[in-house]
TrEMBL record:
Pfam families noted in UniProt: HxlR
A GO MF term: DNA binding
InterPro entries from the UniProt entry: HTH_HxlR, WH-like_DNA-bd_sf, WH_DNA-bd_sf
Name this protein carries in UniProt: Transcriptional regulator, HxlR family
Superkingdom: Bacteria
Source species of the chain: Marinovum algicola
Repeat keyword on record: no
Domain HTH hxlR-type: 11-109
Keyword Mitochondrion carried by entry: no
Keywords: DNA-binding, Transcription, Transcription regulation
Amino acid sequence: MARKYDWRTGSNVEATLSVIGGRWKPVILCNLLVGRLRFGELCRNMPNATQRMVTLQLRELEADGVIRRHVYAEVPPRVEYELTEFGRSLEPVLSVMREWGIAFKARKLSEEAQAHPDDAA
């Protein structure tokens, strides 16, 4: 999982984005804010992401120390993920991103309603 980011010389924003950047990592992290979740629960909460993509993103987040993976010796195997204390420190960033997304979606819905008033009925 070698990434091309050099943390010694890159900017601070670049450092943050190297850990939580991408389409699915922030979504995974927001899901884990509620607590420990199984892999299947994460996938169900992100129906537009493939299982492979979720797996890859989870591995990178684990390698960066943001999440912790718990494997239980059961049949069938059970794997759960949770935020580490370090990962939990991202909560304010993720909350602001979530609030911005809510405002953005509301704005886009309002623009669509104004552009197509007949569709609203």
